[in-house]
Amino acid sequence: MQKLSTPIHSKNPLAQLDLNLLRLFIYIFELKNLTHTAEALHLSQSAISHALGRLRQALGDELFYREKGELHPTLYAKRLYPTVKQSFENLEQIFQTNHLLSDSKLGELAQQSFAKLTIAMHDEIELIVFNKLVSQIHQVLPNCQITSSRLNRSALAHELKVGQLDFAIDVARVVDSEIVHQPLLRDEFVLVLYAPNFAAELANEPTITQAQYFASQHITVSSRRLGLSIEDSLLSKAGWQRQSKIRCQHYATAFQLLKQDKLLLTLPRQLATTFLPPAQGWQILDLPIELPHIELHGYWHQQQQVDPLYGWLRQQIFSAFH
Fold first, then answer.
1. Taking 90 as the threshold, does the pLDDT of residue 19 lie above it?
2. 189-292: which CATH architecture?
């Protein structure tokens, strides 16, 4: 066996290495024959011989020697082969995910990739979506740890980009150009009140008129200290303004206050039907004015847009609401 004069590892071999040469190395190692390697790679034998010469020069080792009609690996080639083989298999798996894979295969890869998920949303949105979200994700990723994180709109693009967040849910709004979004669910606003406090208004029929709505005191629920709530913003755009007597952070608190005082609460229907206290006297009424539906969107970073695993994850999330 003849050794090359170039000292082994005297330079960084990766700096001058063509990835195809490592693929060639795997074929020669496994087939032990240049002719068979040329046939497998659909190349001429002279091209294979030339490529092997380049690889030997780059790595500073003979790599293979001929004995009894076969090519045998050197000690260095034997050490190199398992690492190169595994690396190529890993690369192929990564590249395959950028092509069409079956749902079952994507599901298998997702089990490995999504051990933890962090999804940002406001408190009031969490009440609407989080239970369904957890149920759906755990059907396909039963061991996944799911965290609901408070949404910080000013930092959303950065947190999605660096992977601090995997997904976000918020009302439909204008966002940074790096963020991709699409509708997740739509819901209508309704009116909730505690009927004993509105006996006179409900004496003739179970409705609140537009005049009664704007003459009454209201509870506003928002996790933010300042700024209009979603419903107040929609009312303002329509040229209306209601009287908000109390502003609190949670709907559970709002329901307690409704029972104590003559107040109205405007909220999405799903919240009203899901979290209304199990007691007599509560009523869910249609609003006496027309407001646009509340629309919640799912948000993610554009770099996740072409990743099939994140595409699979989004499909699971959106399927929970359709």
1. no
2. 3-Layer(aba) Sandwich (3.40)
